[in-house]
Amino acid sequence: MHKDIATPLRTREILEKYGFSFKKSLGQNFLIDTNILRNIVDHAGLTDESAAIEVGPGIGALTEQLAKRCKKVVAFEIDQRLLPILEETLAPYDNTTIIHQDVLKANVREVMEQEFSGIDDVMVVANLPYYVTTPIIMKLLEERLPIRGIVVMLQKEVADRISAKPGTKDYGSLSIAIQYYTEAETVMIVPKTVFIPQPNVDSAVIRLTKRKEPLFPVISEDFFFMVTRGSFAQRRKTILNNLTSQLPDGKAKKDIILSSLQEAGIEPGRRGESLSIEEFARLSDCLYPYFN
Ligand code: SAM
C-alpha cells in the first residue's frame, strides 16, 4: 500500500523532491488532510459507475481520493510544473487523465464526450483556485454540461453569497445566477490549518445540485441576468432607481420600468435584496418586450 498524498509529511517530501514553489497568483493552497478530502468526496455521492471532473489537481491529493471512488477522473491543471509530479503521484491510478489547460479556455463538453463514454453520472469535484472561483462555476453552469452537480471548496465568504436567501446581506446577483441553475448548500466549513500554504481567508465546501429545469423559466436568461445584476448595482438604492440607471435607455424609459414593476406586483420602493428569484423572473419577463 502506498501512502496517501494528503499528509503533511508526504506532501513536503513530494514538494522538496521536485523543488516546487507555490504560485500565489494561481491560487495554490494544497490540502494536507486526508479526512477532509474523503469528506468532500462523500458529499459528491459518487459510485464506481460515476466520473469526476477536477479543476486544479495540484500534486494529486484530491485526484487520488476521487480515483479510488469512481470509474474515471479527468483533471485540468494550468501549471506545467505540476505535470511530472502528477505523473509520479498518480502512477498507481490508471483511471486518471490530466489535461494541461486553463479550465476557462477548455472545451469541457468535448473532453467529457471523449473521456466519459458510457458513463451517465458525472460530478465536478475540486478545491478551486480562489482567484477565479466564480468564473469557473459560472462557466460550468452556463455551458449546460451534462453533469449532476458540483462539489467545491472555495472562500467561505463566496459560499455564503452563493447560498444566500432573499432579505439577507449576502443575497445578490451571484446567489440568483447560481440558484437559478442549481440547489445550493454549504456542506462543510474548513479550517485554514489543513492547507499549505494556509490561505488568508476561511474556506467552505458547497454542493450545487443541478435542477432539471431552471427554477422559474424566463423569456431570455441573458436579459434576466442583466435585470438582476442591475437591481443590485447600488444596494442602498431602490429597485426602481437601480434599474433606471442600469438598463439601456433606463432614464428615458422610467415610466415603463415603473409600470412593469406594478404589473409584476413589485412595490417600486423595495430594494433588490428583498426580491425572490420568482419575483425577478416575473419582472424580467414584464420588462423584456420594452428592452429587446
Ligand atoms: N487539488 C489540489 C489540492 O486540493 O491540494 C490543489 C488545489 S489548489 C487550491 C488550486 C489548483 O488549481 C492549483 O494546482 C493551480 O495550479 C490550479 N489552477 C489555477 N488556475 C487554474 C485554471 N485556470 N485552470 C486549471 N487549473 C488551475
Automatic annotation (TrEMBL):
Output this protein's name: Ribosomal RNA small subunit methyltransferase A
Q: What class of enzyme is it?
A: transferase
List the CDD domains hit by this protein, alphabetically. Answer: AdoMet_MTases
Pfam families to which the protein is assigned, alphabetical = RrnaAD
Q: Which family does it belong to?
A: Belongs to the class I-like SAM-binding methyltransferase superfamily. rRNA adenine N(6)-methyltransferase family. RsmA subfamily.
Q: Where in the cell is it found?
A: Cytoplasm
Keyword S-adenosyl-L-methionine in the entry? The reply is: yes
Q: Which organism is it from?
A: Niallia oryzisoli
Residue ranges annotated for the Ribosomal RNA adenine methylase transferase N-terminal domain, each copy included: 36-212
Q: Which UniProt keywords apply?
A: Cytoplasm, Methyltransferase, RNA-binding, rRNA processing, S-adenosyl-L-methionine, Transferase
> Could you tell me one molecular function GO term of this UniProt entry?
16S rRNA (adenine(1518)-N(6)/adenine(1519)-N(6))-dimethyltransferase activity
Q: Which residues bind S-adenosyl-L-methionine?
A: N29, L31, G56, E77, D102, N127
Give its E.C. classification number.
2.1.1.182
Cited InterPro entries: KsgA/Erm, rRNA_Ade_diMease-like_C, rRNA_Ade_Mease_Trfase_CS, rRNA_Ade_methylase_Trfase_N, rRNA_adenine_dimethylase, SAM-dependent_MTases_sf
Report the protein's function. Specifically dimethylates two adjacent adenosines (A1518 and A1519) in the loop of a conserved hairpin near the 3'-end of 16S rRNA in the 30S particle. May play a critical role in biogenesis of 30S subunits.
- UniProt catalytic activity: adenosine(1518)/adenosine(1519) in 16S rRNA + 4 S-adenosyl-L-methionine = N(6)-dimethyladenosine(1518)/N(6)-dimethyladenosine(1519) in 16S rRNA + 4 S-adenosyl-L-homocysteine + 4 H(+)
Checking SMART domains in the record gives:
rADc (SM00650)
